[in-house]
């Protein structure tokens, strides 16, 4: 029997993930507190209490919202025997605490955050990093594989830890790339030519190969991933490093810069807008106002 799926969270990622599940033949009950998001996703229900499913997926902005949903008395889909899968980018320690609470109620919990952005959500080719027991993952695997490629990375919380580490690398490499862009531009080198060379050399990264040409040099700044969300994920990685007592000087410095940049950008800015902030800082330094 094909499992039924409930989905809470119909943002830029949640909505195409619902579409992928439906294409795979799953019956999906989806909800978002935003009426606009519900209207944009066919088959959505009007209340959290109406969400049903053998597998319940959460795709929400942060751990605080995940916890609020999971403790909402109206969320009647949380019944004994259900598997809850948090595909958000959440805090590993919060995930483990929620897992213990749900286990007491007979509910299995997985963390399975994703990487790949909106385009790969639409093509059902996301990278999915799962944390939790092997038996729980196998119950949810057919649902997850309808949205991408699943790797079991460890116990509960491990998926969220790996996702945070991935995203802090995104932040570091993108920040480095746009600082380099300002160096070559200020020296009189065409940035497009410089990055063509870099991207066939050993300094290349996903940020230099894809984000700089597509969203920065084009001045498009619409990758689909918010500035605040990336900064939040970077903070999770730094917090985890502090908790574990491991060296994180570079990651901490980069995260501090992202937070400082965010203070001067619109709340809905795309994360590639870090390039605009770096360019502004460069002009200030050149003008002697920094």
Salient structural properties:
single chain, Rossmann fold, alpha/beta, 8 strands, 290 residues, N-(1-d-carboxylethyl)-l-norvaline Dehydrogenase, domain 2, 12 helices
Structure explained in plain terms:
The chain has 290 residues and is of the alpha/beta class. The protein has 2 domains: 4-155, Rossmann fold (3-Layer(aba) Sandwich), CATH 3.40.50; 161-288, Orthogonal Bundle (N-(1-d-carboxylethyl)-l-norvaline Dehydrogenase, domain 2). Helix content is 51%, strand content 13%. It contains 12 helices and 8 strands. It has helices at residues 14-23, 35-40, 63-70, 92-104, 117-122, 134-145, 158-186, 191-198, 206-216, 227-244, 249-262, 274-286; strands at residues 4-8, 27-31, 55-58, 83-86, 108-111, 114-115, 126-131, 148-154. The strands form 2 sheets. The chain has a 5-stranded parallel beta sheet with strand order 2-1-3-4-5, sandwiched between helices. A 3-stranded mixed beta sheet has the order 6-7-8. Strand 4, helix 4 (92-104) and strand 5 (108-111) form a beta-alpha-beta unit. Helix 7 packs across helix 9 (206-216) and helix 10 packs antiparallel against helix 11. The longest helix has 29 residues, at 158-186. The chain is elongated, with a radius of gyration of 20 Å. The model has no long low-confidence stretch (mean pLDDT 96).
């Amino acid at each position: 029997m094909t499992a039924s799926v409930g989905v809470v969270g119909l943002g830029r990622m949640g909505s195409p993930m619902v579409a992928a599940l439906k294409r795979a033949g799953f019956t999906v009950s989806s909800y978002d507190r935003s009426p606009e998001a519900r209207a944009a996703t066919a088959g959505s229900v009007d209340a959290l209490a109406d969400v049903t499913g053998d597998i319940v997926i959460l795709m929400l902005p942060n751990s605080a919202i995940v916890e609020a949903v999971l403790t909402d008395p109206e969320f009647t889909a949380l019944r004994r025997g259900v598997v809850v899968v948090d595909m958000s980018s959440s805090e590993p320690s919060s995930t483990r605490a929620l897992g213990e609470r749900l286990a007491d109620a007979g509910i299995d919990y997985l963390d399975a955050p994703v990487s790949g952005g909106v385009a790969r959500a639409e093509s059902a080719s996301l990278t999915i990093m799962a944390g939790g027991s092997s038996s729980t993952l196998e119950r949810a695997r057919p649902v997850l594989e309808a949205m991408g490629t699943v790797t079991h990375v460890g116990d509960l919380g491990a998926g969220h830890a790996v996702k945070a580490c991935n995203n802090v690398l995104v932040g570091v490499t993108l920040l480095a790339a746009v600082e380099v862009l300002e160096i070559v531009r200020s020296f009189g080198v065409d940035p497009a030519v410089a990055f063509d060379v870099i991207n066939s050399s050993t300094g290349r990264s996903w940020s230099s190969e894809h984000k700089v040409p597509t969203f920065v040099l084009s001045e498009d700044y619409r990758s689909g991933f918010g500035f605040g969300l990336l900064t939040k994920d970077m903070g999770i990685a730094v917090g985890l490093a502090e908790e574990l007592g491991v060296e994180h000087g570079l990651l901490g410095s980069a995260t501090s810069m992202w937070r400082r940049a965010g203070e001067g950008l619109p709340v809905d800015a795309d994360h590639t807008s870090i390039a605009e902030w770096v360019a502004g800082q460069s002009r200030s330094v050149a003008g002697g106002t920094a």
